[in-house]
Amino acid sequence: MSEFAREAAIDRVEAIVETVASETMPVPVREVWVYGDIALGLDPVDRLDVYVTKDLLFGRDEAAAERFRDAHGVEGIGRTVRAEWAEQHPEYVRANSSGHVAPEKCLAAHLLEADEPVHLEVCNASFEDNVTQRLEGATARGEYEQILDPRGVCLWVSDGEGNSRRSDDALEKLCGGELAFPTLSESLSMLGLDDGEATEAAEAVRAYRQRQDGRSVRGDVV
């Protein structure tokens, strides 16, 4: 699959939100956002961009950690990722190159199909905070392609105490293409870049996205 028709993209967004809201996730989830093409009302949607704010997992299940290490060669279950989730969904457990469980890859495996054009961002910081963090880091290094498109909308939030809320108003506006955003370069100018740098950065972000294919995921801790 190389792109989504807009209606199909909306369906995928609703399915992702429903899964997060109703199923045990590998880590506690605080927010679900969408940004980029889907938020801009484009049809078709070349890539569906989803942002998940996660909480760090506190407490250690040493028995689960040892059990999964012995059975699957994966470190960190019960420490970085919920043991309950891993026991329910061993097929979704993913590790990084060092053999330690990777929460962002586990979330991607649970929420996304392998070949669909979806990018998942996972971070312990809120979307708005991470937009600022990524912009500062990317401009300092001259790596504009790492900028996080600030044009996003929050669809679901949790207070971390078992209470959650879906933003029906935001979803309705998303479905109707009623969300109004400036261009990417204008958005970056509003965040402090001068016009020339904002234009260059926006082009780098677009070029980077065009090179992506299928499912992708990035995890940040800030």
Summarize the structure in words.
InterPro entries: DUF7095 (IPR055521). This protein is an alpha/beta fold and 222 residues long. The chain has one domain. The protein has 9 helices and 6 strands; from the N terminus they run H-E-H-E-H-H-H-E-H-E-E-H-H-H-E. The chain has a 6-stranded mixed beta sheet with strand order 5-4-1-2-3-6. Helix 8 crosses helix 9. The longest helix has 17 residues, at 6-22. It is globular.
Explain briefly what this protein structure is.
The chain is of the alpha/beta class and 222 residues long.
Oligomer classification: single chain
Low-confidence stretches: none
Biggest β-sheet description: 6 strands, mixed
Average pLDDT figure: 93
Shape: globular
Pfam families: DUF7095
Sequence-ordered SSE layout with sheet pairings:
Blueprint (H helix, E strand, L loop, with lengths): L5 H17 L6 E7 L1 H4 L7 E7 L7 H11 L10 H6 L14 H9 L6 E6 L3 H15 L10 E7 L5 E3 L1 H9 L7 H7 L4 H17 L4 E5 L2
Parallel strand pairs: 2-3, 3-6
Antiparallel strand pairs: 1-2, 1-4, 4-5
Helix pairs in contact: 8-9
